């Protein structure tokens, strides 16, 4: 201790060999060499994963992550740190507690033994501690909230570490399984990285009180919603090359086949109580699976000033897929949304009938999902209170959450829905009727109410 530089370079060379690494690593493991070189490896060897989204056991996942990272090594300035972090990012899963926190302690010891200097050890520890930070923040937090970007910048400290963490995030997700990574998730992470890089470069943070930028398509929908006083919808097939928020085709009432990134449904509707619950309920009635969703209030164009101008417009952006068959026509979705908003469509009763049918003819007997968990994410925003919901992804889940938040008398500033396999992790930025964040006791009370409603 420490290893000779030549030995460390040989390890990095092995990790960077791509697909051929797997066979060599397995052979070394079979002879007991790996656990002699890295004693902490024994605790993750052949260890099963807790989340069924994972394709491999913990040890094989670590090797597969290194394989994926080797293909991304040209994107970073220190490929050696990327490869070692990929190999060790889940090493804490062999011990009790949060594997990221435990892994940070373990990797400091392992990296020192391998022979990295103090600065490199610190970078490796940061990568392991925060290897889930980018994807969780990008999919569960409001990227337009300056507190979100600032918290990530404070965690990574430097552009070089951010560059490494970006590549590690992608390699980790690709090695997990097909449900863990998509072009849409990749675009969200890339957007977050771009914003954090700007903050680290010293650029001024966005003014939280300034109006948010919207695309030309979103502005057109908002204007039309103001003019008609009702919801306006547009369906878009999306290709992998386009980031979220950019139009990828012509709005049409006809269904389109999903591209790899999915189908985007944009809804603009004058702000009124119950919009989130009504829209989510209509999608559930049409058997549309919500893969991701974003809700935000947008500033109305100035030329629409007048007595009949609505107080605001909500813009809902959904990533959806048809549970069975093809997508419904946008005109049918709009008509049902109109009926849901005026109360002539009883979504609750319709969904209750379907739930009764599911219970009568269960598709997976003996499978019992853990109960939902609703928490308050402290410090996530200075503008709103963040309520985070973790639950089984079932039809109508988002509708039930929306109704519970509405019953609590809250205003939803934005919503961020992320589905990973059978699990949904949804974050809702909520305020009281005056537009202020909730007091801590009230926030905890709301979390309990929502959790009880989901049970």
From TrEMBL:
Classification via HAMAP family: PII_uridylyl_transf
Keyword Iron: no
GO aspect biological process, one term: regulation of nitrogen utilization
Domain HD: start-end pairs: 58-181
TM segment ranges: none
Listed Pfam families: ACT, HD
GO molecular function, one term: [protein-PII] uridylyltransferase activity
Activity: how regulated: Uridylyltransferase (UTase) activity is inhibited by glutamine, while glutamine activates uridylyl-removing (UR) activity.
Domain ACT: 264-354, 386-455
Listed name of the protein: Bifunctional uridylyltransferase/uridylyl-removing enzyme
PROSITE patterns per the UniProt record, alphabetical: ACT (PS51671), HD (PS51831)
Keyword set, alphabetical order: Hydrolase, Magnesium, Multifunctional enzyme, Nucleotidyltransferase, Repeat, Transferase
Cofactor: Mg(2+)
Keyword Metal-binding recorded: no
EC numbers: 2.7.7.59, 3.1.4.-
Family per record: Belongs to the GlnD family.
Record's catalysed reaction(s): [protein-PII]-uridylyl-L-tyrosine + H2O = [protein-PII]-L-tyrosine + UMP + H(+); [protein-PII]-L-tyrosine + UTP = [protein-PII]-uridylyl-L-tyrosine + diphosphate
Region (Uridylyltransferase): 1
Domains: entry comment: Has four distinct domains: an N-terminal nucleotidyltransferase (NT) domain responsible for UTase activity, a central HD domain that encodes UR activity, and two C-terminal ACT domains that seem to have a role in glutamine sensing.
InterPro entries, sorted: ACT-like_dom_sf (IPR045865), ACT_dom (IPR002912), HD/PDEase_dom (IPR003607), HD_domain (IPR006674), UTase/UR (IPR010043)
Function, as annotated: Modifies, by uridylylation and deuridylylation, the PII regulatory proteins (GlnB and homologs), in response to the nitrogen status of the cell that GlnD senses through the glutamine level. Under low glutamine levels, catalyzes the conversion of the PII proteins and UTP to PII-UMP and PPi, while under higher glutamine levels, GlnD hydrolyzes PII-UMP to PII and UMP (deuridylylation). Thus, controls uridylylation state and activity of the PII proteins, and plays an important role in the regulation of nitrogen metabolism.
């Amino acid at each position: 201790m420490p290893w000779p530089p030549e030995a460390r370079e040989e390890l990095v060379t092995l990790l960077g060999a791509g697909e051929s690494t797997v066979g060599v690593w397995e052979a070394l493991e079979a002879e007991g060499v790996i656990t002699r070189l890295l004693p902490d490896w024994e605790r993750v060897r052949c260890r099963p994963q807790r989340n069924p989204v994972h394709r491999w056991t913990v040890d094989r996942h670590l090797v597969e992550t290194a394989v994926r990272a080797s293909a991304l090594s040209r994107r970073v300035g220190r490929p050696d740190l990327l490869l070692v972090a990929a190999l060790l990012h889940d090493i804490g899963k062999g011990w009790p507690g949060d594997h990221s926190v435990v892994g940070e302690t373990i990797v400091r010891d392992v990296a020192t033994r391998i022979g990295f200097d103090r600065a490199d050890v610190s970078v490796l520890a940061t990568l392991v501690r925060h290897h889930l930070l980018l994807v969780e923040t990008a999919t569960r937090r409001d990227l337009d909230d300056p507190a979100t970007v600032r918290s990530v910048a404070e965690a990574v400290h430097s552009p070089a570490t951010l560059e490494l963490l970006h590549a590690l995030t992608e390699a980790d997700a690709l090695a997990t399984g097909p449900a863990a990574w998509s072009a849409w998730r990749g675009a969200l992470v890339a957007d977050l990285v771009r914003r954090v890089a700007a903050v680290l470069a010293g650029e001024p943070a966005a003014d939280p009180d300034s109006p948010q930028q919207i695309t030309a398509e979103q502005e057109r929908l908002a204007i039309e919603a103001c003019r008609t006083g009702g919801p306006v919808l547009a369906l878009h097939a999306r290709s992998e090359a386009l980031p979220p928020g950019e139009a990828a085709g012509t709005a049409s009432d006809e269904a389109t086949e999903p591209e790899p990134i999915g189908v985007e449904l944009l809804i603009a509707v004058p702000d009124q109580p119950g919009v989130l619950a009504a829209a989510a309920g209509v999608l559930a009635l049409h058997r549309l699976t919500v893969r991701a969703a974003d809700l935000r209030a947008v500033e109305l164009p100035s030329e629409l000033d007048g007595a009949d101008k609505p107080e605001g417009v909500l813009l809902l952006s959904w990533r959806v897929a048809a549970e069975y068959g093809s997508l419904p026509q946008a005109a049918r979705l709009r008509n049902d949304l109109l009926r849901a908003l005026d109360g002539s469509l009883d979504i609750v009763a319709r969904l209750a009938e379907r739930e009764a049918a599911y219970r009568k003819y269960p598709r997976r007997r003996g499978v019992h999902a853990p109960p939902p968990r609703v928490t308050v994410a402290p410090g996530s925003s200075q503008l709103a209170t963040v309520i985070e919901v973790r639950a089984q992804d079932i039809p109508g889940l988002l509708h039930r959450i929306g109704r519970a938040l509405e019953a609590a008398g809250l205003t939803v500033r934005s919503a961020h829905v992320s589905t990973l396999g059978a699990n949904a992790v949804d974050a809702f930025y909520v305020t009281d009727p005056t537009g202020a964040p909730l007091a801590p006791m009230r926030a905890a009370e709301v979390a309990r109410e929502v959790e009880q409603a989901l049970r």
